[in-house]
Task: inverse folding
């Protein structure tokens, strides 16, 4: 039951993973290649707390997107209220609050935000590409006008919250580039660094700096990276790709620190780095909670909005953020934690038939340090492969109840099944094999 397709896609995936390991390896070497990730100390005492989300994509009607966004406010304040430092100083959206930029969508966005946010919490956001969609082809400047009408007169902002600098940059008024913003970004970063050289500077814009976090090769922006690479103090948050925040590749440390914010609407991924972007099936939505102490150490906690639970493996404690030599979450260090996925002992594959005659393949979740990213499924009859496809895993969820994938209609008879689990860094686990009878 050998699959040529699965073999070559997996081979390319491994080659690309090693390419990135070599490219980003210099920062691991500079930092001394720590063998493990630092844990948040018990005496960590925040003096700042903010949340970052992106890609809400409100459509002017009640649906899962609006439901997630409403839930987010309640869950963020529930967490903050339970802490010794109980403030939520800011909620920040890294663009694509609305889906096209229409008045109806903005009215819904402002309505939900006004209902959910409390006094004492600053609300900040930048324009993403979707704020311009309705107008981009004939007059993208209208996107600015709508944003200023409903959200804020300033499309770019530099402010200080509890002594920490925040720099928020929107697209240029062409709705596509940041070329005209580079001078402003550099000037504001110079001011922030001059004020507090040894402290992190939090930056927010919609697209990801190119070739940093997961999704930034497909969806990244070159201009942003050319600015940030000269400022090791930058801790950047970006959206656009929707790529899963639960994936360890969504945090990157090199000449600066970059963090992907995924989406509160639906997370996305790119199987094997080459198979194309796809929404992860089922309900998924996340938001980062960011906390900083008086010394500039930062803790990131990732909240699963549908379940109101934290992803334990995606809590990151960042120190020495103003120094390239102190990087603790480089590609090499994160990859070093990775292990090959393993199915639970005694795992079996089974099927169930749907009312329309199609067949669901059922099997348990494989586990590893970061969680299996995908499964390569091959169904064969005799020597012929009948079905082969790669599927996303449940690693976007805190609650996992096994995999159920629809493999279409099959003629009655006995079939062999092979399921290969793969980790985020292309480590392949032992295949789950079995036979199923279709009646």
Result:
């Amino acid at each position: 039951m050998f699959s040529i397709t699965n073999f070559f896609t997996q081979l390319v995936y491994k080659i690309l993973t090693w390419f990135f390991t070599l490219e980003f390896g210099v920062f691991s070497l500079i930092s001394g290649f720590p063998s493990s990730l630092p844990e948040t100390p018990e005496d960590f005492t925040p003096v700042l707390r903010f949340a970052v989300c992106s890609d809400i994509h409100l459509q002017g009607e009640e649906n899962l997107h609006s439901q997630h966004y409403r839930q987010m406010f309640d869950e963020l304040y529930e967490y903050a209220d339970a802490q010794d430092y109980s403030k939520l100083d800011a909620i920040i959206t890294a663009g694509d609050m609305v889906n096209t930029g229409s008045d109806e969508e903005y009215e819904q966005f402002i309505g939900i935000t006004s209902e959910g946010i409390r006094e004492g919490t600053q609300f900040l956001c930048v324009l993403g590409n979707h704020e311009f969609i309705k107008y981009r082809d004939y007059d993208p400047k209208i996107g600015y006008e709508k944003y200023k009408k409903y959200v804020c007169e300033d499309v770019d902002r530099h402010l200080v919250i509890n002594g920490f600098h925040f720099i928020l940059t929107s697209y240029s008024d062409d709705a596509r580039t940041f070329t005209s913003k580079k001078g402003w970004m550099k000037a504001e970063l110079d001011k922030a660094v001059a004020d507090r050289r040894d402290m992190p500077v939090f930056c927010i814009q919609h697209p990801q700096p190119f070739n940093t976090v997961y999704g930034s090769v497909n969806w990244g922006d070159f201009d942003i990276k050319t600015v940030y690479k000269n400022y090791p103090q930058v801790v950047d948050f970006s959206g656009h790709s929707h790529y899963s925040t639960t994936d360890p590749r969504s945090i990157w440390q090199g000449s600066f620190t970059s963090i992907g914010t995924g989406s509160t609407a639906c997370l996305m991924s790119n199987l094997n780095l080459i198979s194309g972007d796809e929404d992860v099936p089922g309900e998924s939505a996340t938001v980062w909670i960011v906390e900083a102490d008086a010394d500039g150490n930062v803790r990131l906690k990732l909240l699963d909005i549908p379940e109101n639970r934290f992803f334990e493996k995606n809590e990151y404690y960042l120190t020495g953020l103003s120094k390239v030599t102190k990087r603790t979450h480089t590609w090499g260090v994160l990859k070093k934690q990775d292990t090959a996925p393993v199915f639970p002992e005694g795992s079996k594959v089974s099927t169930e038939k749907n009312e329309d005659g199609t067949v669901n393949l059922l099997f348990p979740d494989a586990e590893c340090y970061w969680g299996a990213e995908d499964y390569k499924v091959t169904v064969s009859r005799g020597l012929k492969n009948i079905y082969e496809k790669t599927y996303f895993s449940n690693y976007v969820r805190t609650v996992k109840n096994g995999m159920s994938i629809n493999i279409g209609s099959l003629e009655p008879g006995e079939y062999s099944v092979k399921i290969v689990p793969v980790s985020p860094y292309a480590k392949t686990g032992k295949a789950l094999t079995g036979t199923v009878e279709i009646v």
Notes: Residues 28 and 346 are 39 Å apart (CA to CA). The chain has two domains: 4-16+340-438, 31-337. The mean pLDDT is 91.
